[in-house]
Design a protein that fits this description.
Blueprint: E1 5-7, E2 20-22, E3 30-34, H1 39-59, E4 63-68, E5 71-77, H2 83-88, H3 98-109, H4 111-114, E6 117-121, H5 127-134, E7 138-143, H6 148-154, E8 163-167, E9 176-181, E10 184-189, H7 212-226, E11 232-237, E12 240-246, H8 251-267, H9 271-274, H10 284-295, H11 301-310, H12 320-328, E13 333-337, H13 345-352, E14 355-360, H14 367-376, E15 380-383
Parallel strand pairs: 6-7, 7-8, 13-14, 14-15
Antiparallel strand pairs: 1-2, 3-8, 4-5, 4-6, 9-10, 11-12, 11-13
Amino acid sequence: MSEQEIKLRYGMNPHQESGRALIEGQDMPIEVVNGAPGFINMCDALNACQLVKELKAATGLAAAASFKHVSPAGAAVAVPLSDKLAKASFMDGLELSPLACAYARARGADPLSSFGDLASFSDPVDESSALLLKREVSDGVIAPGYEPKALEILKKKKGGKFLLLKIDPAYQAGDLERREIFGVTLEQTRNDKPITDEIFKEIKTKNTELNEAAKRDLLVATITLKYTQSNSVCYAFDGQAIGVGAGQQSRVHCVRLAGEKADRWMLRTHPKVLGFKFKEGLKRAEKNNVVELYLTGRLSPSEQSQLDGALQEKVEPLSEQERNDFIKGFGGVALSSDAFFPFRDNIDRAAASSVKYIVEPGGSMRDDLVIEAADEYGMVMAFSGLRLFHH
């Protein structure tokens, strides 16, 4: 193996036997510290390491991301977890460093999707983050380094096969990027446009009050979008993505998908959910599945039986009124879109998930109607002028 090549286990699928990661004209910026990467591992890692690096540069806070199939299931900056959120994430009682808090939030955004993730950290992995990773089902990590104790912990995971990648923090890609599809090479200028709070300057709504927390959350949502398969929309709150809608052909479907995820994230801290008494022996992944099942709403008889079988006590379902009232209590959710909203239905759906702050590129023929809808809800909406498609 040369310094310009990493041999991969296989391509995207096991029958695609030849897999390599190559770089021309310079040393490979990624070192395989432990384990053996696959093609999709590398796709996730190369996107995830950029996301967390940009998040830290934009916010000044340590950042982490949880990637699955080349889109983030979650991303976050280092904001301490509240007691309710820690309990809802099954992380209560843990001593978490700032970096571990970022990953706990990223992992907890969509725990079902994060099952078997590729984790990414903006800073060298510390012992606290390693202990958190040790207990989770994850495929690997990419980070600019590993503290000795963290490395010792993680090298023992998965029977010694846990993937650990180290990225040179000084590495900068070239101005052009290429991709081959069906024997044809496509070339473009790399999307290196920095995401800063300058993109919030052009506020179009009557309400123009953007506080610092809102700016932080809009940055989290927008930078997350930059590395999410398009079409994509991201909801963010309290320093983390809480709902990512990736790879949808329709804009409003992105908003609905991400909104449903955001709603479930909020409802995980509902008193009825926090009061669940699980039967002995259930693993965290099984508990997450039970909570997800409960929050889907109307259940079939077999699903209800599955729910009842996992809990010591029968629980009453959340009524639509209970759901709506609880979600309204969050207030101040941020939303970013990678392209303009063509119709006001996107705003209506966002409002149902307590969105108050929006950034989108603008440029639709119906921008005036979209702005009017945002004004009806008292939202703050900025036009960034920046489309962020990613494929």
